[in-house]
Amino acid sequence: MTDLARCVAEAYDIALPHRGEGKVADYIPALAGVDPQHFGFALALPDGTVHTAGDADISFSIQSVSKVFTLALALRRVGSALWDSVGREPSGSAFNSIVQLESEAGIPRNPLINAGAIATTDRLIDGRSGDATIAEILDFIRARACDHAVDVDLNVAASESETGARNRSLTHFMDAFGTLRHPVETVLGVYFRQCAIAMSCRQLARAGLFLAMEGRDPLGGEQLIDAHRARRINAIMMLCGHYDNSGEFAFRVGLPGKSGVGGGILCIAPGHGSIAVWSPGLNDAGTSLVGAIALEHFAYAAGWSVFD
Ligand SMILES: NC(=O)CC[C@H](N)C(=O)O
Protein backbone atom coordinates (compact mmCIF):
# COMPACT_ATOMS: atom_id res chain seq x y z
CA MET A 1 0.00 0.00 0.00
CA THR A 2 1.32 3.47 -0.86
CA ASP A 3 1.39 6.12 1.85
CA LEU A 4 -1.60 7.92 0.34
CA ALA A 5 -3.62 4.71 0.04
CA ARG A 6 -2.87 4.14 3.72
CA CYS A 7 -4.00 7.70 4.59
CA VAL A 8 -7.32 7.03 2.77
CA ALA A 9 -7.82 3.73 4.60
CA GLU A 10 -6.99 5.29 7.97
CA ALA A 11 -9.26 8.31 7.47
CA TYR A 12 -12.08 5.99 6.46
CA ASP A 13 -11.56 3.75 9.48
CA ILE A 14 -11.41 6.66 11.93
CA ALA A 15 -14.65 8.18 10.61
CA LEU A 16 -16.52 4.87 10.23
CA PRO A 17 -17.75 4.61 13.85
CA HIS A 18 -19.57 7.95 13.36
CA ARG A 19 -21.65 6.59 10.46
CA GLY A 20 -25.32 7.31 10.95
CA GLU A 21 -24.69 10.43 13.04
CA GLY A 22 -26.20 13.70 11.84
CA LYS A 23 -29.45 14.18 10.01
CA VAL A 24 -30.33 13.23 6.44
CA ALA A 25 -31.78 16.20 4.51
CA ASP A 26 -35.51 15.74 4.26
CA TYR A 27 -36.68 19.10 2.91
CA ILE A 28 -36.20 17.58 -0.55
CA PRO A 29 -38.49 14.52 -0.20
CA ALA A 30 -36.56 12.44 -2.75
CA LEU A 31 -33.44 12.69 -0.56
CA ALA A 32 -35.18 11.81 2.71
CA GLY A 33 -35.08 8.07 2.12
CA VAL A 34 -31.31 7.77 1.55
CA ASP A 35 -29.67 5.28 3.93
CA PRO A 36 -27.57 7.24 6.47
CA GLN A 37 -25.17 4.29 6.77
CA HIS A 38 -23.58 4.99 3.40
CA PHE A 39 -20.00 6.20 3.51
CA GLY A 40 -17.68 6.49 0.55
CA PHE A 41 -14.26 8.08 0.04
CA ALA A 42 -12.22 8.63 -3.11
CA LEU A 43 -8.90 10.36 -3.67
CA ALA A 44 -8.03 11.18 -7.29
CA LEU A 45 -4.42 11.93 -8.17
CA PRO A 46 -3.16 13.80 -11.23
CA ASP A 47 -1.58 10.63 -12.68
CA GLY A 48 -5.04 9.05 -12.93
CA THR A 49 -4.76 6.87 -9.82
CA VAL A 50 -7.87 6.78 -7.64
CA HIS A 51 -7.71 5.40 -4.09
CA THR A 52 -11.10 4.51 -2.65
CA ALA A 53 -12.76 3.19 0.48
CA GLY A 54 -16.34 2.12 1.25
CA ASP A 55 -19.23 3.14 -1.00
CA ALA A 56 -17.04 5.04 -3.47
CA ASP A 57 -18.88 3.72 -6.52
CA ILE A 58 -22.47 4.38 -5.43
CA SER A 59 -24.10 7.46 -6.99
CA PHE A 60 -25.55 10.15 -4.77
CA SER A 61 -27.14 13.55 -5.36
CA ILE A 62 -24.28 16.06 -5.56
CA GLN A 63 -26.60 18.98 -4.73
CA SER A 64 -24.60 22.11 -3.90
CA VAL A 65 -21.29 20.59 -4.96
CA SER A 66 -22.58 21.37 -8.47
CA LYS A 67 -22.17 25.08 -7.66
CA VAL A 68 -18.40 24.75 -8.07
CA PHE A 69 -18.74 23.47 -11.63
CA THR A 70 -21.26 26.12 -12.68
CA LEU A 71 -18.99 28.77 -11.15
CA ALA A 72 -16.06 27.53 -13.24
CA LEU A 73 -18.19 27.42 -16.39
CA ALA A 74 -19.75 30.85 -15.79
CA LEU A 75 -16.32 32.41 -15.25
CA ARG A 76 -15.12 30.78 -18.45
CA ARG A 77 -18.15 32.06 -20.33
CA VAL A 78 -18.62 35.63 -19.08
CA GLY A 79 -15.30 36.27 -17.30
CA SER A 80 -15.06 38.92 -14.60
CA ALA A 81 -18.48 40.29 -15.59
CA LEU A 82 -19.83 37.52 -13.35
CA TRP A 83 -18.90 39.71 -10.38
CA ASP A 84 -21.55 42.24 -11.43
CA SER A 85 -24.13 39.65 -10.34
CA VAL A 86 -22.57 38.05 -7.29
CA GLY A 87 -20.02 38.88 -4.59
CA ARG A 88 -17.19 36.88 -3.09
CA GLU A 89 -17.51 37.34 0.63
CA PRO A 90 -18.52 34.69 3.15
CA SER A 91 -22.13 35.08 4.23
CA GLY A 92 -22.02 33.65 7.73
CA SER A 93 -25.62 32.64 7.04
CA ALA A 94 -27.45 29.44 6.15
CA PHE A 95 -27.23 28.17 2.56
CA ASN A 96 -30.78 29.25 1.72
CA SER A 97 -30.86 32.53 3.66
CA ILE A 98 -32.62 35.55 2.17
CA VAL A 99 -31.79 38.19 4.80
CA GLN A 100 -28.70 39.80 3.26
CA LEU A 101 -30.29 40.07 -0.17
CA GLU A 102 -32.57 42.88 0.89
CA SER A 103 -29.95 45.19 2.39
CA GLU A 104 -27.41 44.30 -0.32
CA ALA A 105 -29.60 45.25 -3.28
CA GLY A 106 -30.24 41.74 -4.58
CA ILE A 107 -26.56 40.87 -5.08
CA PRO A 108 -25.84 37.62 -3.21
CA ARG A 109 -22.73 37.41 -1.06
CA ASN A 110 -20.98 34.61 -2.98
CA PRO A 111 -21.56 31.97 -5.70
CA LEU A 112 -21.75 29.05 -3.24
CA ILE A 113 -24.87 30.01 -1.28
CA ASN A 114 -28.16 29.23 -3.02
CA ALA A 115 -28.93 32.80 -4.10
CA GLY A 116 -25.38 33.24 -5.44
CA ALA A 117 -25.43 29.93 -7.26
CA ILE A 118 -28.76 30.81 -8.85
CA ALA A 119 -27.33 34.18 -9.97
CA THR A 120 -24.27 32.36 -11.33
CA THR A 121 -26.43 29.89 -13.26
CA ASP A 122 -28.35 32.85 -14.66
CA ARG A 123 -25.09 34.26 -16.08
CA LEU A 124 -24.03 30.86 -17.39
CA ILE A 125 -27.28 30.58 -19.39
CA ASP A 126 -26.12 33.68 -21.32
CA GLY A 127 -29.11 33.85 -23.66
CA ARG A 128 -29.29 30.11 -24.36
CA SER A 129 -32.07 27.71 -23.43
CA GLY A 130 -32.14 25.93 -20.09
CA ASP A 131 -31.69 22.61 -21.88
CA ALA A 132 -28.59 23.81 -23.73
CA THR A 133 -27.13 25.07 -20.45
CA ILE A 134 -27.68 21.86 -18.51
CA ALA A 135 -26.26 19.96 -21.49
CA GLU A 136 -23.06 22.04 -21.24
CA ILE A 137 -22.83 21.41 -17.49
CA LEU A 138 -23.31 17.67 -17.99
CA ASP A 139 -20.81 17.47 -20.86
CA PHE A 140 -18.22 19.24 -18.72
CA ILE A 141 -18.76 17.04 -15.69
CA ARG A 142 -18.88 13.80 -17.74
CA ALA A 143 -15.61 14.63 -19.46
CA ARG A 144 -13.90 15.46 -16.15
CA ALA A 145 -15.32 12.38 -14.44
CA CYS A 146 -14.19 10.20 -17.40
CA ASP A 147 -17.65 8.72 -17.36
CA HIS A 148 -20.41 9.55 -19.80
CA ALA A 149 -22.98 7.76 -17.69
CA VAL A 150 -23.17 10.69 -15.23
CA ASP A 151 -26.66 12.16 -15.45
CA VAL A 152 -29.37 14.21 -13.78
CA ASP A 153 -31.70 12.28 -11.46
CA LEU A 154 -34.95 13.72 -12.78
CA ASN A 155 -36.88 12.36 -9.82
CA VAL A 156 -34.74 14.43 -7.42
CA ALA A 157 -34.98 17.49 -9.69
CA ALA A 158 -38.79 17.22 -9.76
CA SER A 159 -38.93 16.70 -6.01
CA GLU A 160 -36.83 19.80 -5.40
CA SER A 161 -38.90 21.87 -7.80
CA GLU A 162 -42.14 20.78 -6.12
CA THR A 163 -40.83 21.84 -2.71
CA GLY A 164 -38.80 24.77 -4.04
CA ALA A 165 -40.70 27.67 -2.45
CA ARG A 166 -37.58 28.94 -0.72
CA ASN A 167 -35.41 28.91 -3.86
CA ARG A 168 -38.29 30.45 -5.82
CA SER A 169 -38.48 33.23 -3.22
CA LEU A 170 -34.75 33.92 -3.49
CA THR A 171 -34.94 33.97 -7.27
CA HIS A 172 -38.00 36.23 -7.49
CA PHE A 173 -36.45 38.54 -4.94
CA MET A 174 -33.28 38.86 -7.03
CA ASP A 175 -35.40 39.32 -10.12
CA ALA A 176 -37.19 42.22 -8.43
CA PHE A 177 -33.81 43.90 -7.90
CA GLY A 178 -32.88 43.37 -11.57
CA THR A 179 -30.06 40.93 -10.79
CA LEU A 180 -31.23 38.29 -13.28
CA ARG A 181 -31.05 38.27 -17.07
CA HIS A 182 -33.42 35.34 -17.69
CA PRO A 183 -36.92 34.32 -16.54
CA VAL A 184 -37.09 32.91 -13.01
CA GLU A 185 -38.35 29.48 -14.10
CA THR A 186 -35.69 29.12 -16.80
CA VAL A 187 -32.96 29.77 -14.23
CA LEU A 188 -34.51 27.47 -11.63
CA GLY A 189 -35.05 24.75 -14.25
CA VAL A 190 -31.26 24.63 -14.72
CA TYR A 191 -30.47 25.09 -11.03
CA PHE A 192 -32.71 22.23 -9.86
CA ARG A 193 -31.30 19.91 -12.50
CA GLN A 194 -27.64 20.79 -11.78
CA CYS A 195 -28.24 20.08 -8.07
CA ALA A 196 -29.85 16.74 -8.99
CA ILE A 197 -26.79 15.44 -10.87
CA ALA A 198 -25.95 12.02 -9.46
CA MET A 199 -22.33 10.94 -9.16
CA SER A 200 -20.15 8.56 -7.18
CA CYS A 201 -17.19 9.64 -5.06
CA ARG A 202 -14.82 8.22 -7.69
CA GLN A 203 -16.45 10.28 -10.45
CA LEU A 204 -16.64 13.43 -8.33
CA ALA A 205 -13.03 13.23 -7.16
CA ARG A 206 -11.86 12.91 -10.75
CA ALA A 207 -14.11 15.76 -11.83
CA GLY A 208 -12.50 18.11 -9.29
CA LEU A 209 -8.91 17.46 -10.37
CA PHE A 210 -8.71 20.48 -12.67
CA LEU A 211 -9.13 22.73 -9.63
CA ALA A 212 -6.16 21.08 -7.94
CA MET A 213 -4.03 21.47 -11.06
CA GLU A 214 -4.33 25.18 -11.86
CA GLY A 215 -7.32 24.77 -14.17
CA ARG A 216 -5.77 22.03 -16.31
CA ASP A 217 -7.33 18.60 -16.58
CA PRO A 218 -4.31 16.37 -15.88
CA LEU A 219 -6.06 13.38 -17.43
CA GLY A 220 -6.90 14.92 -20.83
CA GLY A 221 -4.26 17.67 -20.73
CA GLU A 222 -6.74 20.44 -21.59
CA GLN A 223 -6.47 23.89 -19.95
CA LEU A 224 -10.12 24.24 -18.93
CA ILE A 225 -10.00 27.56 -17.12
CA ASP A 226 -7.19 30.04 -16.49
CA ALA A 227 -4.90 29.14 -13.61
CA HIS A 228 -5.72 32.34 -11.74
CA ARG A 229 -9.43 31.49 -11.93
CA ALA A 230 -8.84 28.02 -10.47
CA ARG A 231 -6.93 29.62 -7.58
CA ARG A 232 -9.76 32.05 -6.97
CA ILE A 233 -12.40 29.32 -7.04
CA ASN A 234 -10.35 27.52 -4.40
CA ALA A 235 -10.24 30.72 -2.34
CA ILE A 236 -14.03 31.02 -2.54
CA MET A 237 -14.44 27.35 -1.59
CA MET A 238 -12.19 27.83 1.42
CA LEU A 239 -14.13 30.87 2.63
CA CYS A 240 -17.68 30.04 1.57
CA GLY A 241 -17.93 26.33 0.72
CA HIS A 242 -19.80 25.31 3.86
CA TYR A 243 -21.99 28.36 4.53
CA ASP A 244 -22.00 29.29 8.23
CA ASN A 245 -19.73 26.30 8.90
CA SER A 246 -16.95 27.42 6.55
CA GLY A 247 -14.70 28.71 9.33
CA GLU A 248 -15.00 25.47 11.24
CA PHE A 249 -14.21 23.42 8.13
CA ALA A 250 -11.14 25.54 7.31
CA PHE A 251 -10.04 25.28 10.93
CA ARG A 252 -10.35 21.51 11.02
CA VAL A 253 -9.51 20.44 7.46
CA GLY A 254 -7.53 23.37 6.00
CA LEU A 255 -8.55 22.64 2.41
CA PRO A 256 -10.97 24.31 -0.01
CA GLY A 257 -14.16 22.28 -0.04
CA LYS A 258 -17.79 22.32 -1.06
CA SER A 259 -20.53 20.42 0.64
CA GLY A 260 -23.98 19.44 -0.58
CA VAL A 261 -27.07 18.41 1.34
CA GLY A 262 -26.91 15.00 -0.34
CA GLY A 263 -23.98 14.36 2.02
CA GLY A 264 -21.19 14.79 -0.52
CA ILE A 265 -18.13 16.98 -0.06
CA LEU A 266 -15.59 17.81 -2.76
CA CYS A 267 -12.25 18.87 -1.32
CA ILE A 268 -9.34 20.27 -3.33
CA ALA A 269 -5.71 19.82 -2.31
CA PRO A 270 -3.95 22.30 -4.61
CA GLY A 271 -1.06 20.68 -6.46
CA HIS A 272 -1.82 17.27 -4.96
CA GLY A 273 -5.23 15.90 -5.82
CA SER A 274 -8.96 15.97 -5.35
CA ILE A 275 -11.02 14.15 -2.73
CA ALA A 276 -14.71 13.29 -2.66
CA VAL A 277 -16.50 11.88 0.37
CA TRP A 278 -20.11 10.96 0.84
CA SER A 279 -22.15 10.14 3.89
CA PRO A 280 -25.72 11.46 4.12
CA GLY A 281 -25.92 12.43 7.81
CA LEU A 282 -25.47 16.23 7.98
CA ASN A 283 -24.41 18.64 10.72
CA ASP A 284 -26.55 21.70 11.48
CA ALA A 285 -25.04 23.67 8.59
CA GLY A 286 -25.75 20.95 6.02
CA THR A 287 -22.23 19.49 5.74
CA SER A 288 -21.69 15.72 5.96
CA LEU A 289 -20.71 15.00 9.53
CA VAL A 290 -18.83 11.77 8.80
CA GLY A 291 -17.36 13.24 5.62
CA ALA A 292 -15.86 16.19 7.50
CA ILE A 293 -14.31 13.86 10.11
CA ALA A 294 -12.76 11.72 7.37
CA LEU A 295 -11.39 14.76 5.55
CA GLU A 296 -9.94 16.22 8.74
CA HIS A 297 -7.99 13.02 9.37
CA PHE A 298 -6.99 12.58 5.75
CA ALA A 299 -5.65 16.14 5.38
CA TYR A 300 -3.71 15.76 8.60
CA ALA A 301 -2.25 12.35 7.72
CA ALA A 302 -1.32 13.40 4.18
CA GLY A 303 0.08 16.73 5.39
CA TRP A 304 -2.01 18.42 2.71
CA SER A 305 -3.63 21.28 4.62
CA VAL A 306 -2.80 24.44 2.68
CA PHE A 307 -1.57 25.82 6.02
CA ASP A 308 0.96 23.00 6.55
N1 LIG B 1 -26.76 22.96 0.42
C1 LIG B 1 -27.28 22.36 -0.60
O1 LIG B 1 -26.80 21.33 -1.07
C2 LIG B 1 -28.54 22.97 -1.10
C3 LIG B 1 -28.87 22.58 -2.51
C4 LIG B 1 -30.32 22.33 -2.73
N2 LIG B 1 -30.51 21.88 -4.07
C5 LIG B 1 -31.13 23.58 -2.47
O2 LIG B 1 -31.13 24.43 -3.31
O3 LIG B 1 -31.76 23.75 -1.46
UniProtKB/TrEMBL annotation:
Claim: Hydrolase is one of the keywords in the record: yes
Alphabetic keyword roster: Acetylation, Hydrolase
Enzyme Commission code(s) on record: 3.5.1.2
Entry GO MF terms: glutaminase activity
Catalytic activity field: L-glutamine + H2O = L-glutamate + NH4(+)
Binding-site residues for substrate, renumbered to this chain: S64, N114, E160, N167, Y191, Y243, V261
InterPro entries from the UniProt entry: Beta-lactam/transpept-like, Glutaminase
Family the UniProt entry places it in: Belongs to the glutaminase family.
Subunit structure: Homotetramer.
Stated name of the protein: Glutaminase
Species the sequence originates in: Sphingopyxis jiangsuensis
Underlying gene: glsA
